[in-house]
Amino acid sequence: MQRRLVQTAIPGPRSLALQKEREGHVSGGFGATVPVFVEQASGGIIVDVDGNQLIDLASGIAVTSVGASAPEVAAAVAEQASRFTHTCFMVTEYEGFVDVAKALARLTPGDHEKRTALFTTGAEAVENAVKIARAATGRQAVVVLDHAYHGRTLLTMTMTAKHVPYKAGFGPFAPEVYRAPTAYPFRSPVGPERCAEDALARLTEMITTQIGADRVAAIIAEPIQGEGGFIVPAPGFLKGVQDFAREHGIIFIADEIQTGFARTGTMFASEHEGIVPDLICTAKALGGGLPLSAVTGRAEIMDRMAPGTIGGTYAGNPVACAAALAAIGVIERDDLVARASAIEGQVLPRLRTLAEDVPAIGDVRGRGAMLALEFVVPGTTEPDPAAARAVAAHCHSEGVITLVCGTFGNVIRLLPPLVIEADLLADALDVLEQGIRELG
Ligand code: PLP
User: Fold this and answer.
1) Stretch 94-105: mean pLDDT, rounded?
2) One domain, residues 329 and 423
3) 148, 151, 192, 316: least surrounded by Cβ within 10 Å?
């Protein structure tokens, strides 16, 4: 049984010494949510260099769904690394790449014929999805949503909504990226019931009047918006966007980089919305902790490009492919889809009860093991980022790793590894609850 253990201040003396060392050598552009240095991690626990055992409610931002040292992943990595670490798939090929493509064809929504292109990071998958959509349609415009997050490269930071810290000072941005309204029930100008219909009407009007639907190559959406605040779109919104895209020959891309691989209580979050994306971007949990990303989509779109037009030196690295196959094996064998639903069943009712008592909690939302609390000035919908920061700071000092997100920085998000033990999660929730009650 794993347990939380806080035996020094967080960060402890060894972490503080390493932090000082880091400051002299590592770019100041990197932040650190909890500035502890890690010795070992598994299941729901991260052990730091001072011997503290922290409960992990972050999973390295939705990556280590099967745990940070799952034996199956570690063994597959070691076995593959002992045979070869790299050839470059564009020079000489290997089976692991094809096997990951096969697994993605089987697991992603829709029973149409599919092809996959593997890359390394999430941003690279999104960049390539846009390239593929432009090549397939001969059109240039790309439509993204309010509160979207798609990465930190030039194109993907342009596609990302939030100014600080993702865009400020980093312009000029990429051309032909247009932002449309999203359906954010808690902040809908017409209320949650009419939210989907209203957002869809504004999105379609924006596209037809400001861009021209026949100029749009792709509309890209996260089925639950991640960095933007764990925004679950109002029911029917994404289906409406997909139908509009189909009607106008626009490629509909789902960015399932954060939501994919059992995280939301289905293998992919698109399934909750009844949508079948033309292209789907995956990364994070796909690689079981190693860097691997993918674009999977309709064969007729994916095969439109000539050989040599997409790729990358490390695209679909063989060690990362071996890790992915092992991680997918664990997700399926241990039914982590059901485990994510069980986490929702354990956490969501508790957060909802707490929200009835605490007026600073404006909204509780999420699916599966992707859950969040939005903090507001009591009695209003005015975002209260200081409250979210105070709760996170309490959790960190008590040995629970939580992340803050949201366009307004006022959302605490919970992303535990899907293999976390129920008792450990309950302990983390006790700490979180204490931090929230201390807000007064
Ligand atoms: N898209 C979504 C929805 C994400 O959550 C992220 C990362 O958080 C990305 C894209 C970018 O992925 P990466 O950081 O691997 O480039």
Assistant:
1) 98
2) no
3) 192
Nearest CA to ligand 1 atom 10: 150
What is the C-alpha separation between 350 and 225, in angstroms, rounded? 22
pLDDT at 440 over 80: no
pLDDT digits (tens, 9 = 90+) for 163-187: 999 999 999 999 999 999 999 999 9
- Supply the range of the domain harboring residue 342: 13-56+336-437
Give the end of a domain, one of 333, 351, 386: 333
Give 424-439 pLDDT, tens digit per residue.
Answer: 999 999 999 999 999 9
Pocket of ligand 1, candidates 119, 147, 149: which has the most ligand atoms within 8 Å of its Cβ, to mutate?
A: 149
Q: Are residues 162 and 290 in the same domain?
A: yes
Atom number, ligand 1, closest to the C-alpha of residue 126: 10
Tell me which residues have their CB closer than 6 angstroms to ligand 1. 61, 121-123, 126, 149-151, 222, 226-227, 255, 257-258, 283
Look at residue 260 in the predicted model and tell me its pLDDT.
98
Report in angstroms the alpha-carbon separations of 184 from 75, 198, 202, 361.
Answer: 43, 11, 13, 16
Tokens of 375: 């903090």
Domain with 274 in it: what CATH number?
3.40.640.10
Task: Give distance in angstroms: CA of 180 to centre of ligand 1.
Answer: 20
CA distance 156 to 126: 7
320 neighbors 287 (Cβ within 8 angstroms): yes
Mutate to test the pocket of ligand 1, among 145, 220, 284 (most ligand atoms within 8 A of CB): 284
Cα 258 to averaged position of ligand 1 atoms, centre (Å): 7
Last residue of a domain, one of 308, 333, 358: 333
pLDDT of 259 higher than 80: yes
pTM (2 decimals)? 0.98
Which pLDDT belongs to residue 112? 98
Instruction: Specify if 304 maps to a domain.
Output: yes
Q: Which atom of ligand 1 is nearest to the CA of 256?
A: 3
- Among 293, 305, 302, CA closest to 124: 293
